[in-house]
Amino acid sequence: MSSSSSSSKTIRRLEVQSPVPADIDIANSVEPLHVSEIAQSLNLSSTHYDLYGKYKAKVLLSVLDEVEGVGDGYYVVVGGITPTPLGEGKSTTTVGLCQALGAFLDKKVVTCLRQPSQGPTFGIKGGAAGGGYSQVIPMDEFNLHLTGDIHAITAANNLLAAAIDTRVFHESTQSDKALLNRLCPPNKQGKRSFADIMFRRLKKLNISKDNPDDLSPEEVKRFARLDIDPESITWRRVMDVNDRFLRKITIGQGPDEKGMVRETGFDISVASEIMAVLALMTSLADMRERLGKMVIGNSKAGEPITADDLGVGGALTVLMKDAINPTLMQTLEGTPVLVHAGPFANIAHGNSSIVADKIGLKLVGPGGFVVTEAGFGADIGTEKFMNIKCRYSGLTPQCAVIVATVRALKMHGGGPEVVAGKPLDHAYLTENVALVEVGCVNLAKHISNTRAYGVNVVVAVNMFSTDSEAELKAVRNASLAAGAFDAVICTHHAHGGKGAIDLGIAVQKACENVTETLKFLYPLECSIKEKIEAIANSYGASGVEYSEQAEKQIEMYSKQGFSSLPICMAKTQYSFSHIPSQKGAPVGFVLPIRDVRASIGAGFIYPLVGTMSTMPGLPTRPCFFEIDVDTATRKVRGLS
Amino acid sequence: MSSSSSSSKTIRRLEVQSPVPADIDIANSVEPLHVSEIAQSLNLSSTHYDLYGKYKAKVLLSVLDEVEGVGDGYYVVVGGITPTPLGEGKSTTTVGLCQALGAFLDKKVVTCLRQPSQGPTFGIKGGAAGGGYSQVIPMDEFNLHLTGDIHAITAANNLLAAAIDTRVFHESTQSDKALLNRLCPPNKQGKRSFADIMFRRLKKLNISKDNPDDLSPEEVKRFARLDIDPESITWRRVMDVNDRFLRKITIGQGPDEKGMVRETGFDISVASEIMAVLALMTSLADMRERLGKMVIGNSKAGEPITADDLGVGGALTVLMKDAINPTLMQTLEGTPVLVHAGPFANIAHGNSSIVADKIGLKLVGPGGFVVTEAGFGADIGTEKFMNIKCRYSGLTPQCAVIVATVRALKMHGGGPEVVAGKPLDHAYLTENVALVEVGCVNLAKHISNTRAYGVNVVVAVNMFSTDSEAELKAVRNASLAAGAFDAVICTHHAHGGKGAIDLGIAVQKACENVTETLKFLYPLECSIKEKIEAIANSYGASGVEYSEQAEKQIEMYSKQGFSSLPICMAKTQYSFSHIPSQKGAPVGFVLPIRDVRASIGAGFIYPLVGTMSTMPGLPTRPCFFEIDVDTATRKVRGLS
Fold first, then answer.
1. Which positions in chain A touch B163 (Cβ < 8 Å)?
2. Complex ipTM tops 0.90
């Protein structure tokens, strides 16, 4: 192994044990490097980042302008086949692949991961730092608080929510004139003026006056009275806690709120549109504009009302100004990781941030690698990566990895239901090549769908100890037959980067041998329905069925001028279709669109295929029962 | 000025302008030092703190054990007279005094301040970093997010809230046996066991078995069924936003929550008991115990139910493990500041943290000064500082500063009502010595009340340009007559530390000339009512009147074994009495106790004198209209 790349100075060799210990024990067994060493391995100087303790640093967005670069590295996206409820190891594979590239193949590499929600960490799922010998460390810092980005999102989201209800309240008790007087109070000299942000609304209303006293009564009404229809408010409050009792609530029941009650609810913070904005913005100025144009509902006349109409777009940006910078961490083997954003993978696009990927691509430079993960199966995560994220970023991936497991393929081949928390059926623990072969229809469809974007596809088979040679061979054969560039067996969970060396080599070759250019699934100019139908078609649907509500919303968004946005399908991750029990590669189904919503600031329309829960709950015995601090060593115990 | 103290290396001289520019303009006109230089001035090595960007660092609690120290510095608390709604400049005086001590009198000094809530920053009040030429910088970082402590409190508070409702929900649908099975699930070998945290509940129940299978049916019921009375739940959710529509809400209206609706509400985050715990804990282990014993309500049988009964005390501690470390910042003149905790000053004790004060006292050492602020007037802040905070910390102050303004004294002398946002009456802008002299009765009572603790009192007259010589002289005379050690005119708002040199000298002399020992207002052993009456007596009340509800609660807390806790009065800050309009030093009133509540984890009982709002609202034009980021310079605009 040569040590020519500067990153190799941070490389740490793992002594792996068998059987693989618990994640937290592996994570705690390694002493992380000071993050400034990780930064140095990427040629970052201390002016390029802010430390947050010893093991985390925020890389400042300004490096995109300040760091000299000769070009970008290779861009690799990791998706998966349609998963079982246990997950097929996509994050773990992402980390393992990078450990292989950085620690064994002497490549410059940056892993781009999403920041996990704290809710599931204390609930059922546990953390999201990878697993086994492929993890981001310190895993407790990765899973909790990190550098406060989700907290900033919560604060901004809820400031906007408070601004909405308070504005409706104040408008209900004041005349147009009184409202204007309050909004533009006189200064000590008795002169009124507009706040800077008010000129955004004035411009939207085509009012070009710059003195509040010059407005006509009609203009006063149009400017000062947003006239929000309470029924139309789509903006909900958020909290980074699994609190099911907040899913549907009634607010405003205090005596001072004068009976202005309203039904609404809380989502988990990562479901906030502001999270999607963070993931899709490309600069501070771009974020400012996106936050300001987020639509929270309509006026009674049907006009969309934005955060800037409420005067709060600037304050939201101030709350988010540090969250804009990705967080640098490290893998168990000392390679760099950028953690940034973590939007929901159904009601949002489920990918980490554009700016983290861009910074990574610049820092690794030509011949280096940025590996970024896309949530859920490739039908959802990779599709949105291509058609939403790459469309906004202008970046082009060279290779898409699809993570598969023999377990999930057996399920797609007709194996019994897999249920989290229950023992696996015998079928999953003993050889059954036929089941695997039938199930590969799911993998094949993900491969051909992903190939259609013009990228090379490498299948990573995340190997379990119960997998047989014949089963693994069947997956490899099916992959190549379906058009994969390569298909590789990986053991990074048990062996760290060493277990993903073949995958790293395959990914490198795939990147070096691109023959096509990036092709989107649909052009932005076509109608909302045409775009929905293009995606449904890629799922295998024979048609699309719209509810009355969906039709109404599509018509409204088209009228409001939002029809040129990309589409973000909110669909189950457990099937290509809308029915979770339909495994394999179902065809001939009609995809039902129950409702259509929009994240105008983030920049997409999201049709709802079925009901999406945006606030998880806690079980009778949540993870938190195990979690504590050893007050003597200050180490966290029980995180999984 | 000698430069013998190492802190003098960080001292920066201000070029003051007249008239005094806006706070944000002064703050932005100074380039802060890297916080590692501030740390170095306190002889902290880089292992003693974690950087959070360039201008903030968390000082690790371990310095209390690790730093060699020969003894503590002087301990000074800053209180005030009964204020007008405009505030009399207590934070500004605290900062100005420290700038004088550190930058002009060559003393080692640490300022201890509370972290402000973000809610009012975007609402009416604006920030809380001091004002004029006496501020903490960078003021935007001070006022927003800081190092995430309040966000951690929000997360912990709301995890506990979710745990409560979810537990009630799961208990309502499961038998005792099913509950136990869920709480203690079998491992792969089919063996059940208790989680570590469950032994806390078992111990409380006097059950000494360590195998779930050995519990008798009666023991299963007692252990597994908390049987929380929903009506008794006092734990509310919190949010660091002024969101009045959350004051009273109905939760659980989603279809999956099966009609288990309940009325509750949100407080602003700084009102969380966890904030009071943070302010009063003395170590990580102490915090773990306090968080675990927080009482959230009662069982139907009337037993208090704690966070540890719910299995979540450890997880709360994990969420708070970084918040335990105070944040180091700097004043405009380069002296060090520790920002930590910020509990409400009525329903909680309104003082910054014990550990910040302790760290400060050790770092400044003998001859140095720690200046810490106590919220509201001395009847509230200083009283709680002495009887609650010093009781738990074991620390003894040498000097109490009482901040007074001619404006407020005129109000106490019978001047017209002072209303925030409205122009001041003529009486406050022209000389009126008689009004001041009459008003000094309020100051005199604060002085004698504070003297009674055995500390020397220095009055700081925060001078305004409209104050006359004769008025200022009247205040000084009245102060000395009431037993103050000294009374000094200060102009730190206009001149920075230079304007508080005389105050610094007076404080130094007061500290060097202590003749008494610390005396509390009441012993802990007396009854809840005796303690309430001792405090009421100090206000000037002739008696106390308890509502039926208050009587019931006092009886319950006494029965539950909580009667030896100190008392934290929730009273208006605008009068010694419970009636805000009673200025001066009213006597002969009967103090009504409407209700009595308890923060068992924090460690106090709080009687409610009148109604306390724990969730502010937003006006028609909140501060946020002015707040934005300059996307070119990345500077925050419009913060006040």
1. 618, 622, 624
2. yes
